[in-house]
C-alpha cells in the first residue's frame, strides 16, 4: 500500500482505469479489463458502450449494469454497429438477474440488425420483461430530422 500511494503521488492516475488498479502485464477477454467482483449496480439509464459494438460489451456487462433503460445508438453496419452479439448478450445477461424488472431498450436508429433481432427474439424479450421502444416522434432541426424518444423518471 505504501509503494502504491508513493507512486500515485507523482502521477495520481497511473495504474488506474476508472478507479480500478490495473496490471499492465495481465490479459483479459477482448483486450479490456476484467470486471472486478462485486454486486450488480442499478441505474435508471445506461448507454451501451461503443455504439453497441461487440468489441467490449458482453453478457457480463448486462449482468452487472442493471438499467431500467438501455440506449443503443449504433448505425454503422460496416463496423458491426449495432452488434447482434451485444443485443443477444442483453438477453443472456438479463436472464441471470433472478428478478423480473422491466427493461426498456431504446434504439436511436432503425437498423436491419435491430429489426431482425426484435422479430427473432420477441418471445424471449417478453419472457424477460424487455420492451423495445420505437419512436413515432420526429425532431426537426435546421436541415436535419431524426426520431426522438421522451423518457420520464
From TrEMBL:
Residues 1-35 are annotated as: Disordered. It comes from the Eukaryota. Residues 1-10, 20-29 have a biased composition (Polar residues). GO terms for molecular function: actin binding; microtubule binding. One of its GO terms (biological process) is regulation of microtubule depolymerization. One of its GO terms (cellular component) is microtubule associated complex. This is MAP1A protein. It comes from Rhinopomastus cyanomelas. The lineage of its organism: Eukaryota, Metazoa, Chordata, Craniata, Vertebrata.
